[in-house]
Amino acid sequence: LMSAHRGEVICKVTTAKALDANTSKELNGILEGFLQKGQKLHLQTEVDPSLVGGMTVTIGDKFIDMSLKSKIKHYTGILKSASI
C-alpha cells in the first residue's frame, strides 16, 4: 500500500536466462513508457530456464506472457486437436 501511495509500480520480469546490463536498461526504459506521469518503476527480474526463451512480464495488475514455453504449449494443443 505504501508503494502505491508513493506512485511506485512493481514490475516483475521473468526470463529464461539472466539479462545483461544493456538489455535490462533498455527493458526498463520501455516499461517506463507504460506508466502514468508521476509513477516510478521498480523492476524485479527473475530467471526461469523452463521458459525456454522470451519473457513474462507482470506490471501492476497486467500479465503478459511472451515466453516460448507458452507458445510451444499453445501450438502443441492445436496440433493435438487437429490430428483427432
UniProtKB/TrEMBL annotation:
User: InterPro entries from the entry?
Assistant: ATPase_OSCP/dsu (IPR000711)
Top-level taxon: Eukaryota
Q: Which PANTHER family match?
A: ATP SYNTHASE DELTA CHAIN
Which keywords, in A-to-Z order, does the entry hold? ATP synthesis, Hydrogen ion transport, Ion transport, Membrane, Transport
Q: Would you tell me the protein name for this molecule? A: Oligomycin sensitivity conferral protein
UniProt GO molecular function: proton-transporting ATP synthase activity, rotational mechanism
- Where is it localised? Membrane
Q: Main localisation, per the record?
A: membrane
Record's GO cellular component terms? membrane
